[in-house]
Design a protein that fits this description.
Radius of gyration of chain A: 18 Å
CATH superfamily of chain A: Tetracycline Repressor, domain 2
Distance between the termini of chain A: 55 Å
Structural class of chain A: mainly alpha
Protein name (chains A, B): TetR/AcrR family transcriptional regulator
Number of helices of chain A: 9
Number of strands of chain A: 0
InterPro entries (chains A, B): Homeodomain-like_sf, HTH_TetR, Tet_transcr_reg_TetR-rel_C_sf, YxaF_TetR_C
Shape of chain A: elongated
Oligomer: homodimer
Helix content of chain A: over 70%
CATH architecture of chain A: Orthogonal Bundle
Strand content of chain A: under 5%
Organism (chains A, B): Paenibacillus ehimensis
Pfam family, one (chains A, B): TetR_C_13_2
Keywords (chains A, B): DNA-binding, Transcription, Transcription regulation
Chain lengths: 192, 192
């Protein structure tokens, strides 16, 4: 029973994540989540009594964990922080070109949509970015950057990636991410 | 007659811009545009036979001109490109804190919403960013940076600002923009 409950729960969260990617928060409806997940209506309210907000919360929470781990694993492939971060951005560019950039809730989209109307989800998105910043900052600290430098550079790197991704979408190519990757040694060698 | 037509036309574009800011592209309806602008229904179709897409197009086009001019005017206040760009970002941080950051169509929001579904508006948003990049690049060129360096740095600066703005929204403060401003001399002195 627990297993089947967990399966339904997972399926509902997963479906919510996919629909948020396609239609944003206000464009995602509970009926569509039920339809696409194949879960009975009653099970949605059983698992998520607070409805759509709770489902979105859990889907974002899951994206936070998944992407943080993905960043950590990716950075762990190189000892040198500069090489590690530069290669992380090159890989992001490759994923953009392969149209497989993102597998989860698109945080920037959600932030731009809900930051003024939903404090609970906004606060969660803040924590998502902080978790990513921490992953970059830890790598920088391991390379000898001070705590403050590491945090500022980590935030800068995330801002560059988020912004580059928006510019990539307008151009339908990954050039902006490649340009950002080239700036990394300039920023980090000087910062060190 | 021409004047009154132009007033109605302007009012419709202005109202569309405001509604795009509040509700995004799919959340903005023609009925709401008519209601908020006070324009008669017939005049909307007279001025904008293609309906919402055409209205959004013109509102984005107007944002492109306004923001490009705003960037140029702001950068013209300082001779040195580093000082000029750094102060532009400090001013953006102040505007964010005063909740007057943006007066027009929020381009990043629109891009994230429509990039996969509306090629005409996506292409226009690409031109908006290019126009902003050109404003930054011209300032850098005037300070002795090469053409290629200027374009890459201009794109990086815009990406940093766009990304920082998203992080600002999650935190409800302007710290990310202030952190980006501090990175400008690092990036530009090295790049020169």
């Amino acid at each position: 029973m627990v297993k089947s409950n967990n399966t339904t729960r997972n399926k509902l969260i997963e479906t919510t994540g996919k629909l948020l990617q396609l239609h944003g928060y206000s464009g995602t409806g509970l009926n569509e989540i039920i339809k696409q997940s194949g879960a009975p209506k009653g099970s949605l309210y059983y698992h998520f009594p607070e409805g759509k907000e709770q489902l979105a919360y859990e889907a974002i929470e899951r994206t936070k964990e998944n992407v943080t781990n993905f960043i950590k694993d990716s950075l762990a492939r190189y000892d040198d922080p500069i090489e590690a971060i530069q290669n992380f951005i090159y890989d992001s560019a490759k994923r953009f070109e392969a149209d497989s950039y993102f597998n989860g809730v698109p945080i920037a989209n959600i932030v731009l949509e809900i930051s003024k109307t939903n404090d609970r989800l906004r606060e969660l998105c803040r924590k998502v970015f902080e978790s990513w910043h921490e992953a970059f900052a830890d790598k920088l600290k391991s390379g000898g950057y001070s705590d403050e430098e590491s945090w500022d550079l980590a935030m800068t790197i995330n801002a560059m990636i988020q912004g580059a991704f928006v510019i990539c979408l307008t151009r339908q190519d990954s050039k902006p991410l490649l340009v950002m990757a080239e700036q990394i040694p300039v920023m980090l060698i000087k910062g060190k």
